[in-house]
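Can't attach files on this board, so I'm pasting raw text. These are the components:
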Amino acid sequence: MILWLSVALADPAALRAPEAPVVAVDAGTPTCSAAAWTGAVGGGWWVRDDGGSAGFALGMRRVPEGFGWTAHGAVGVLASLVRPGLGAHVSGAAGIARHGNRASHRLEVVIPMSLGQGQVRVPVLLEGGSAVRVGRLSIGGRGGVGLTLSKGRPSYEAQGALVVGFHREAPVPREGS
Amino acid sequence: MWWSLLGCAPLPEVVLEADDSRLGDWGEPGPHGVVLEQRAAVARVEERLVYDWIAPLDVRDDDPVVLFVHGGLVDRERYRWLGIHLASRGYTVAAPAHDLDLAIFDAANVRFVLDDLERRSEPSSVAACGHSLGGVIASWAWQDDDRIDALCLLASFPAGEGPVDGSGPVLSISGASDGSALPDDVRAGAERYARARLAFVDGMNHYAWTDGATEGELAGDGPLGRPLEEVRTDALRVVDAWLDASLRDDPGAAVRLDAPFPGVSP
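---
Top answer:
Structure tokens for the assembled complex are below.
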């Protein structure tokens, strides 16, 4: 088990990269985000692709060795880019993951909640991601579907992103991987 | 995204000059000049929700508001003719955008737009109005939100079955030649409201409510039986009188609604 303490972003999608590289960039809809850390601590940025807001969060993540359960949690702040105002972000995710030497996969239920501007946002997403290692890079994708509970009727969500990670060290060949 | 981050939203545009010679009879443009602005509101904490704000040039804080929801897969810009008409008569019209032009994916957008309007002004009364699928969403908003006083369905009917909860007046108006919202379905839908007024415009089809109908859209629609401007004028005569009666408590409009309208059957 690896327990990561990192600074990531709200919605800290890059923190949910299939593995835990030094730097991860997640570009897609609805957010573009980056997470970076050295050892236990790092930092990054996040912005919605509709220009609605940007945020920052502190998160922790459990990454299994081989096949096992995975989880992460994050808290942070977000700022509205539409009109001045701050909000809070709390996200949690849990699921299963397989981390091999060359490829990693995960399937999680993700709840990246936020509140502010007199509103509350509670997305409930089924999210999957995969990445393959190419030297020090990992390249993969992320997709999620679900709905967002807020004022009135729910909104339906479909997300997709390209995820690129950079690792401090090249993978060590392992038998059977 | 980037123009919005840089704060480069399109500037307000005067789309109709004021003209006191326009008397504003029901079905005709009013004397007000009209301004169109694309505004942004906060939705679901994080999102930037863009909406058309179409208002009289001499807009007042307490002008009545019409929240408009476009039809499925039809851009809101294709209804600007209707927004400009209503604004020339003194109504402020707000029409939110939706992802993929499908309002059902973000049904609460119309309520977030109303939040934004109320942050800037104090509308005296509010109607929700929608075309086709947008009527379903408008009906939900009218049911869920006490701030919405009246409901106007254009070629539409409510989702589900059974009586529709909600108080306040309802107008269901559709084309007698509509090939998408069939007249029998529209009639059955209107009967599910406690206080619905029903009107069918002779020779009007589904896409006569929109500008720029495509060949594909028209292929699945009924025939337009009369010139477009003629059916729109007949439809607007009913809509205008109903809005004046419902949002302005105009007693003359209420009386007019009980008399026959040319080119329209109940």
